[in-house]
Design a protein that fits this description.
By secondary structure, this protein is mainly alpha-helical. Helices cover about 60% and strands about 5% of the residues.
Length: about 180
């Protein structure tokens, strides 16, 4: 049996700082979206994803790939968003794979929330680090994402990685 490779002091510090920063940043961004716009972080992710899709619509399996969510989580969340009038479900030739699209209210919600969300991201992240630090951080994150690309996070059936930073986003989106 091989001895475990425990984290050294510097590694432990880096790992715990990353976890704390990630959790607090996600919480602060989600709290802002909820307080200012009545949107959860999950709502915002779905709205951004649909707003960037052609004709602001996607099939359920495409949303699963884009969000890296389990099918049941996505289904339940989309039902809640439908009840709130943010998205609608439209049948396709395949009854098991409907399309979801932004409603006028969903489109307006992302148009209203995106500038304020981008301002929060800037305030809480980019105004705190230098451009050099941000570039180094992005390179490090991309390196880790590349290492994870063959490792599904939540969807074991997923055969390809979710597109991340390479996408040219119309709205600033941090996955809260």
């Amino acid at each position: 049996m091989t001895e475990p490779r425990w984290l050294g002091d510097g590694e432990q510090r880096a790992w715990r700082a990353f976890l704390a920063m990630s959790q607090r940043l996600d919480h602060a961004l989600a709290r802002h979206l909820q307080n200012e716009f009545g949107l959860s972080g999950a709502d915002y992710l779905i709205l951004v994803t649909l707003s960037e899709a052609p004709d602001e619509r996607m099939r359920a399996y495409e949303l699963i790939e884009s969000t890296d969510w389990e099918k049941s989580r996505l289904s339940h969340h989309l039902k809640r968003m439908e009840r709130r009038g943010l998205v609608c479900r439209e049948p396709t030739d395949n009854a098991r794979s409907p399309e979801f699209c932004l409603t006028a209210a969903g489109h307006q919600a992302i148009v209203d929330a995106a500038p304020a969300h981008a301002a929060q991201v800037r305030k809480l992240f980019f105004d705190v680090v230098s451009p050099t630090e941000a570039a180094r951080f992005a390179a490090t994150c991309e390196k880790i994402l590349d290492a994870l690309s063959g490792t599904p996070l939540t969807n074991p059936a997923k055969s390809r990685p979710t597109p991340h930073a390479a996408r040219n986003r119309r709205y600033e989106a941090i996955r809260p």
